[in-house]
């Protein structure tokens, strides 16, 4: 049995990439990037349609909207972007939501 990334003993000189090999990840990323972008655009369109048509109580119950939040701007950034932490004003745990 041969380790990943090693060559076979025959004359084919076939190399099998390791699971963590960056070149393999890059090839897969390029291959699936258009599909991932299409999926993202579809999800964004769906959320936009819901925000425009659903009543506020439904948006809250589905976890798409959080109300009465307090925001604090952090001094550091994330990849050059501003980071804002949100919390419940009374310090309680946040209700059900779909944000990460």
Give the tags.
single chain, 100 residues, alpha+beta, two-stranded antiparallel sheet, 38% helix, flat
Brief write-up:
This protein has 100 residues and is an alpha+beta fold. 38% of the residues lie in helices and 16% in strands.
Characterize the structure shown.
- The protein is of the alpha+beta class.
- Among the domains are: 18-53; 64-90, no CATH class.
- The protein contains 2 helices and 2 strands, in the order ααββ.
- Strand 1 (70-78) and strand 2 (81-87) form a beta hairpin.
- The chain is flat, with a radius of gyration of 23 Å.
- The two termini are 42 Å apart.
- The relative contact order is 0.09.
- Intertermini distance: 42 Å
What low-confidence regions span 5 or more consecutive residues with pLDDT below 50? none
Query: What Rg is obtained from the alpha carbons, in whole angstroms?
Result: 23 Å
- Strands of the largest sheet, in order across it? 1-2
**What's the shape?**
flat
Order of helices and strands: HHEE
Give a count of the beta strands, DSSP E runs of length 2 or more: 2
Strand content: 15-25%
Helix- and strand-based class?
alpha+beta
Average pLDDT over all residues: 79
What can be said about the biggest beta sheet? 2 strands, antiparallel
Helix segment tally: 2
Helix content: 25-40%
Write the layout of secondary structure elements.
Blueprint: H1 22-53, H2 56-61, E1 70-78, E2 81-87
Antiparallel strand pairs: 1-2
